[in-house]
């Protein structure tokens, strides 16, 4: 069991490294900085976020969020709008059409190949893999949250 655990940890590390390298390559190809497309994906999932909410979700400082939004806005991937209730509050809204035009072609081959891989597993294997990813994600989020500075709001 110990040997299998070591092999699993090695495979997991290799997957994590390959994921980082692949996302860096996607970012370069898209003309974005490092993980900007991952943050864009987060904004797309939420439809709209305040700068403060994005800071809390990512652990980025408010200054880093401002730089991120500046870069994404310059590429016409997001726009800023101001809250009707509080003009100091900036709401970040993704331009889904521009984001999909930019990113979809870069992920097409990956999606085709991973779909073929996933469908090669039995239903029970897929349930185990899904369980691992969901629970590992929760653990990583918990550890990340404990490392990020706490905000007062």
Structural write-up:
The chain is mainly α and 153 residues long. It has one domain: Winged helix-like DNA-binding domain superfamily/Winged helix DNA-binding domain (Arc Repressor Mutant, subunit A, Orthogonal Bundle). It has helices at residues 2-30, 36-46, 51-58, 62-74, 96-118, 123-147; strands spanning 49-50, 78-82, 90-94. A 3-stranded antiparallel β-sheet has the order 1-3-2. Helix 3 (51-58) crosses helix 4 (62-74). It is globular. The model has no long low-confidence stretch (mean pLDDT 90).
Helical fraction? over 70%
% residues in beta strands:
5-15%
By CATH's scheme, which homologous superfamily applies?
Winged helix-like DNA-binding domain superfamily/Winged helix DNA-binding domain
What is the helix/strand order?
HHEHHEEHH
- Specify Rg, calculated over alpha carbons: 18 Å
Mean pLDDT: 90
Unreliably modeled segments: none
Overall outline? globular
Number of E-state strands: 3
Most strands sheet = 3 strands, antiparallel
Q: Can you count the helices?
A: 6
- CATH uppermost class: Mainly Alpha
CATH third-tier fold name: Arc Repressor Mutant, subunit A
**What count of structural domains?**
1
Strand order of the largest sheet: 1-3-2
Q: Please tell me the CATH architecture by its name.
A: Orthogonal Bundle
Spatial separation of the terminal alpha carbons: 46 Å
